[in-house]
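Crash report, auto-generated. Payload:
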Amino acid sequence: MNISIVGTGNVGTGLAKVLSKTRHGVVMGARTEAKGRAAADAIVKEHGGNVRGSDVASAVRDADVVILAVPYAETADVIAIAGSLSGKIVIDATNPLTEDFSGLTLGFESSAAEEIQKRVAGAPVVKAFNTVFAQIYAEGPRFGERPVQVFYAGDDDAAKKAVSEIINAAGFDAVDAGPLKNARYLEPLAALNIQLGYSLGRGTQIAPAWIEREAA
Amino acid sequence: MNISIVGTGNVGTGLAKVLSKTRHGVVMGARTEAKGRAAADAIVKEHGGNVRGSDVASAVRDADVVILAVPYAETADVIAIAGSLSGKIVIDATNPLTEDFSGLTLGFESSAAEEIQKRVAGAPVVKAFNTVFAQIYAEGPRFGERPVQVFYAGDDDAAKKAVSEIINAAGFDAVDAGPLKNARYLEPLAALNIQLGYSLGRGTQIAPAWIEREAA
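Recovered output after restart:
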């Protein structure tokens, strides 16, 4: 297939590098043809692979798949200059982040944890255990050798420390997820876990985790 | 520490089982003392460990830590009967789920992907690649032996199949995340990834993943 990547920033360039190693044709689309070509040439020079560059409309014209790799705020503008996308597959690789990357500009209001904190003013609330299927407790806190990660978020450091010790004492791996308002992310994390486990049939012996690249 | 678990359902019972194996004292709080005792006795009988049962107010009174393990909709009610929580640590293990578990009742409006789909009516939008730090493309799609998981969500099955093949061809592990509206969960997943990588100092060679218990 012909894949058009709209955006020549870190994400667009990174995607072009990995996709250029596949059997798919990759074209990078930029505001100007010159900018698109420069981005593609830089990748080929440094990295090899098969990447061409062009302006957005030209890059999109012959594409089967169009990857939007621009800031979300620019997507409306980019779509307007892209020409017809009818019948093409559009991959949305964007995130509706605030300018300081600290939050989302869509679907971002409150959380159960924050609502609960309003009701228990004198007590520090820590979000925790909300992404662990109850069936996991029955089978034990480890998947083979690997402890299930339990995310905790709160605004009171002493309370967070105590909770992390409880999580680890129970055999889980306590993962600091930041301030209480990050419950706005931990609750959707649980919702996605439920979607995967039930709607998508993966069952309840699954859990979200953050994995890291081992040091070389 | 004394830990009070409010709620005797699957989550409360599961937490009581794992916490009863720690050095912490565990008391389960239910609507009535009889119900709390029955829940605790069942755990001790089946599972051993040190768990007591009582009514909510009594269970909370001497607790250092109170775990809310009831449906979110019941939390206001439970807090009202719990008595003073001042100075105690409250662990919120709830999720503000809709009755059919299909979504969230807080912080749940729209997503970049859905807004983009409105703008490109003729083209199926697939959410993908939004949880991969650009720096991961530079280092390669695998962490050691393990391919980084790339989540994709959309409403057009053919488009999703094509995108999953592209993801796998690039060396990642394509994970079906369901319909396009699940971008409402994938975008917060990216926001949490950014919080962990930047605000919490874990760096950019990290990625969210779903892990599974190996079959025994």
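Post-recovery validation: The first helix of chain A runs from residue 10 to 19.
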